[in-house]
């Protein structure tokens, strides 16, 4: 129960940071996608099921507050959570390269799906412009912010796992 509450706090904090502080700290209109970072991190650390749950909630928040179609972003984020949860067996707390790479790949996949579904299908075929002015800057900004955000999530996850192990050993 405690883990679920803390996960909800992560989601709400990332959403609020993304919509308020980083909404003002944009570079050329680009802000980091903290919800992708949270979805990928939780999925990577806790597995497919939790990754999908966090992804769905994050995507639903994006749908409600910024999207025009309910369920579009929820589906994208859910798939990203599942995809990152698939790499849980490769998760080592000391290695930050793989999580950063997975968050970067997740952000690229997110941007590609958004481009194809929201721009290309409407007849806007300026992929190179979208890549240079939206996708790559968002990717770099997201990874830079994730360097800090991931460490916070990892630290809290370690504490929760230690606490869960202690409480499990009491009942054995």
Automatic annotation (TrEMBL):
Membrane topology, record value: Multi-pass membrane protein
InterPro entries, alphabetized: Cell_shape_determin_MreD_prd, Cell_shape_determining_MreD
Protein name per UniProt: Rod shape-determining protein MreD
Principal location: membrane
TM regions (residue ranges): 52-80, 100-121, 127-150
Subcellular location: Cell membrane
NCBIfam families attached to this UniProt entry: shape_MreD
Family of this protein: Belongs to the MreD family.
The gene coding this protein: mreD
Record keywords, A-Z: Cell membrane, Cell shape, Membrane, Transmembrane, Transmembrane helix
Domain of life: Bacteria
């Amino acid at each position: 129960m405690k883990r679920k509450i803390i996960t909800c706090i992560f989601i709400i904090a990332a959403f609020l940071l993304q919509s308020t502080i980083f909404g003002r700290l944009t570079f050329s209109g680009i802000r980091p996608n903290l919800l992708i970072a949270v979805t990928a991190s939780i999925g990577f650390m806790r597995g497919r099921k939790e990754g999908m749950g966090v992804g769905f909630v994050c995507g639903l928040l994006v749908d409600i507050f910024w999207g025009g179609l309910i369920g579009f972003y929820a589906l994208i984020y859910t798939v990203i959570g599942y995809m990152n949860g698939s790499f849980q067996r490769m998760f080592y707390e000391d290695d930050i390269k793989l999580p950063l790479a997975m968050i970067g790949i997740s952000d690229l996949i997110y941007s590609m799906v958004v481009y194809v579904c929201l721009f290309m299908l409407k007849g806007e075929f300026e992929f190179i412009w979208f890549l240079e002015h939206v996708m790559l800057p968002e990717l770099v900004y997201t990874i830079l912010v994730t360097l800090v955000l991931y460490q916070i999530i990892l630290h809290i996850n370690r504490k929760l796992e230690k606490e869960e192990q202690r409480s499990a050993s009491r009942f054995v």
